[in-house]
Request: fold
Amino acid sequence: MMKYTVIIPAAGMGSRMNTDYNKIFIPLGESPVIRMTVEKFEADPDCNAIYLAGRKNEIDTLHEILAGCTKVRGIIEGGKERQHSIYNVLSAIEPADYVFVHDGARPFVSKETLTHLKEAVPVHKAVICGVKPKDTLKRIDGSTVEATIDRDRVVAVHTPQAFDYELLVSAYRNALENELSVTDDSMMVEALGVSVHVTPSTYDNIKITTREDLKVAESIMNKREG
Reply:
């Protein structure tokens, strides 16, 4: 099986959570969200190294929370936007064959999802994971429906996203040089004209963003413990 390095951007804030501190520090059960996220990769034998992008004033706190996580090789100061934070980490780490990028507030990624990505990235070089939307999707103009979208042709994208290291570095450099505004890493790869492969995720692989997400997270934990 291939080996990879994972980058975890963890420099966000809790604005939609209505907190004045980083949402990744919110506890789920006995562990903060970020510890639960990191431990998923700590437990994966194919993960060689874990790097985080953190806010300057939170780096010491992250080190304290992640004490004992032996694969954490560094916590690097993030930038203005998510893409700047990840590029800061990419610029600071040793080159690797493959790099995964995973949201710090997404603590329920499954072993199966990781396996799908690990199997696909050596073949396709750029791989995302996601799930089919459950709801009917409409394209709108203001408050008017323009069309109903075929759900079989769309996917709700999750992380991790997995890439060939050199490809991801090239994509980031191109995005910065051309001042591209993107919402995920695969958009930068698409901008190079490279195809992105899709593998399955799970509906439990939620990103904790709002107070309602905390209730869903508690339900997921109760289901897994049961």
Q: What stands out?
A: The first strand starts at residue 4 and ends at 10. The radius of gyration is 17 Å. The chain has a mean pLDDT of 93. The longest helix spans residues 211-225.
